[in-house]
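User: Reviewer 2 asked us to show a designed sequence for the structure in our supplementary figure. I'm pasting the structure tokens here. Could you produce the per-position amino acids so we can include them in the response letter?
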């Protein structure tokens, strides 16, 4: 018997496996009014945090009997410059609702960032373990002018370095680390899209608010004497009781 002829190889295309990092939105409830309120508190009403990024909607934390209006959620997310393309988890009815919107099933997907619907409280519940691989960062954005009240600087996908004062009412935001080589008296939000390894460094720490990956602390809680008005770093500590901010002096 003659050997079977090999099938001709197509010349116009190839099929390859691929990995596509996405932001994941873990839903903890179906009250979209509350979600919008929490979203505004987290992002300050700005739509500049995202640039039509692909989004995975995680339904796994919703009660099985919940009937979320995913179409209304999609409208809100599009207004925030996010593109929901896939879903994960959920009851059979929830999964069918997601598929009616054209979202793909991605139960095995691994997200680089996990973004909760609301900012974490001062003593949050135990969180899902953070992914071990952080998204790559571009070169740092350097700002060498003082920032006045009402001004905001956002370093998308990279670290932020500020060499001048951040005045009260000003806001510095970065997806990576934040370095302020001057008094930090406004707000500093590092790891804005979920990087739990991000840190904040300040030469003079007198901030109104500091936040890393959604875990925040405001000036309503006075800073300890050993760091107030001094050089300090802020990092996220994750333990069995949840996430908390550690504020440590710098030599």
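Assistant: Here is a per-position design you can include in the supplement:
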């Amino acid at each position: 018997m003659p050997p079977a002829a090999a099938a001709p190889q197509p010349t116009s295309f190839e099929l390859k496996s691929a990995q596509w990092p996405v932001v994941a939105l873990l839903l903890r409830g179906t009250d979209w009014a509350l979600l919008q309120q929490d979203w505004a508190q987290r992002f300050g009403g700005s739509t500049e945090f995202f640039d039509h990024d692909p989004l995975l909607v995680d339904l796994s934390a919703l009660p099985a009997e919940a009937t979320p209006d995913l179409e209304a959620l999609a409208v809100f997310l599009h207004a925030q410059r996010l593109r929901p393309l896939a879903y994960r988890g959920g009851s059979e009815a929830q999964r069918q609702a997601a598929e009616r919107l054209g979202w793909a099933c991605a139960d095995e997907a691994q997200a680089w960032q996990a973004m909760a619907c609301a900012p974490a409280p001062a003593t949050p519940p135990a969180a899902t373990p953070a992914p071990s691989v952080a998204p790559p960062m571009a070169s740092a954005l350097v700002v060498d002018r003082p920032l006045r009240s009402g001004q905001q600087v956002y370093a998308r996908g990279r670290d932020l370095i500020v060499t001048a004062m951040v005045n009260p009412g000003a806001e510095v935001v970065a997806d990576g680390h934040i370095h302020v080589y001057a008094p930090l008296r406004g707000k500093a939000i590092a790891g804005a899209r979920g990087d739990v390894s991000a840190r904040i460094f300040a030469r003079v720490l007198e901030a109104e608010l500091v936040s890393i990956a959604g875990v925040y602390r405001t000036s309503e809680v006075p800073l300890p004497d050993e760091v107030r008005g001094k050089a300090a770093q802020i990092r996220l500590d994750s333990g069995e009781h949840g996430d908390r901010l550690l504020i440590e002096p710098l030599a």
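For the response letter, you might also mention the following. The chain has two domains: 23-116, 138-249. The CA atoms of residues 87 and 247 lie 36 Å apart.
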